[in-house]
Recover the amino acids of this structure.
């Protein structure tokens, strides 16, 4: 794609209204505000409805038309000179974790809205339409799976199956969507997208640690989730000599350490054991069974598959060495999602032109941009968050960085929508 528009001096000097963006973030955060300064606005609750209504009200005030689909995804459209062109879309989600922060997801939606407000202020017309979107239930904290709205939109998750998903109280997605008044008429996916951009806090510590302001996201890591069960034999911790034990815990800990070692052998590898169940879980009994989770991630499907092969080979070795039974069951698999190279270049060029220190980065967390990358050229812009903390009430991004990410988004949106 040509960068002529991006390099015109008059357009390069354009900046969003950072104070307005910050004020919007703080106002939205009051809906579901928590005592520790965070936000609890679970999907499809009355608080979610209030948040949706507020954002849509702002969009209407900015002259945007509203389209809602059957899973509750909301598209807010600024018309282009050529309405037949597919829109350049930007957004994220406004649902939160139970102890969530003000910025996760919300920033991406309101940064996109601020781009539109800025274009309106300056009376700038684009050839292609621009749309701001927020997706239903990205977090997956009340209903599973995560990234629900974008997954249905992309055709990966079947609508009727998702409608039947229930929360802890047995309430269905369909019932709760109807209750808050957000079952729209449009069939998910019957909505063209020319390109998609998502601004987001990093949710990790790398940008802050390296004093970078912008992360140019290369893609989202692929994920393998497993349950591993090591079966030995319970015995008394006192009378049983060490060489005669069938200690499931000792074998399990070797595998746990190997998970970390495998990840450490790859630049973008991640290896985590986050859940452990020990049977019989008694102080003076040699454990007879240990069940634990394994989370392995990497930048490409090939890299994740290589980690999988190493893990399985090690388990075979441990089984032969120990004589214990080791079962490995894959419970979930999410493919890696590389982002479009031209979108990445546009983001990096915009950051450089604006004078923001930037670096390539990968996302270890899932985002709606994953599913959008199946449909259209997609890019993500990361900004730092304090101490890398997210999904936490103390989650924080500075006004300076919030504004910087918005300025980069403005530049790439103008480039892709083609300023007239």
């Amino acid at each position: 794609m040509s960068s002529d528009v991006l390099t015109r001096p008059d357009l390069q000097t354009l900046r969003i209204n950072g104070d307005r963006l910050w004020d919007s973030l703080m106002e939205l955060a009051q809906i579901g505000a928590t005592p520790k300064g965070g936000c609890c606005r679970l999907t499809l609750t009355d608080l979610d409805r209030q948040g949706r209504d507020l954002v849509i009200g702002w969009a209407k005030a900015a002259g945007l038309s509203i389209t809602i689909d059957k899973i509750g995804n909301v598209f807010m459209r600024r018309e282009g000179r050529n309405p037949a062109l597919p829109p350049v879309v930007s957004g994220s989600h406004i649902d939160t974790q139970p102890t969530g922060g003000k910025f996760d997801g919300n920033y991406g939606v309101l940064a996109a809205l601020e781009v539109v407000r800025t274009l309106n202020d300056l009376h700038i017309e684009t050839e292609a339409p621009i749309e701001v979107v927020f997706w239903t239930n990205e977090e997956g904290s009340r209903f599973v799976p995560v990234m629900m709205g974008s997954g249905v939109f992309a055709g990966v998750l079947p609508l009727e199956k998702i409608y039947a998903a229930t929360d802890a109280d047995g309430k269905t997605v369909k019932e709760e969507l109807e209750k808050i008044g957000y079952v729209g008429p449009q069939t998910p996916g019957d909505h063209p997208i020319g390109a998609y951009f998502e601004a987001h806090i990093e949710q990790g510590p790398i940008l802050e640690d390296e004093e970078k302001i912008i992360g140019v996201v290369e893609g989202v890591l692929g994920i393998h989730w497993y349950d591993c069960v090591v079966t030995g034999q319970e015995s008394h911790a006192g009378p049983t000599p060490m060489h005669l034990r069938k200690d499931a815990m000792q074998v399990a800990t070797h595998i746990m350490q190997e998970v970390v070692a495998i990840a450490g052998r790859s630049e973008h590898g991640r290896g985590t054991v986050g859940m452990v169940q020990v049977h019989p879980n008694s102080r003076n009994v040699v454990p007879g069974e240990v069940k634990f989770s394994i989370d392995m991630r990497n930048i490409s499907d090939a890299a994740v598959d290589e980690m999988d092969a190493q893990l399985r080979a090690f388990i075979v070795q441990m089984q032969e060495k120990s004589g214990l039974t080791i079962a490995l069951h894959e419970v979930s698999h999410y493919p890696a999602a590389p982002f479009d190279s031209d979108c990445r270049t546009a983001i990096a060029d915009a950051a450089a032109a604006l004078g923001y220190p930037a670096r390539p980065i990968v996302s270890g967390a899932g985002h709606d941009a994953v599913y959008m990358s199946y449909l259209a050229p997609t890019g993500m812009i990361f900004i730092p968050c304090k101490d890398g903390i997210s999904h936490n009430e103390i989650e924080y991004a500075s006004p300076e960085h919030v504004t910087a990410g918005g300025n980069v988004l403005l530049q790439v949106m103008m480039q892709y929508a083609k300023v007239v």
Observations:
- The longest strand covers residues 222-231.
- DSSP finds 14 helices and 16 strands in the chain.
- The longest helix spans residues 301-322.
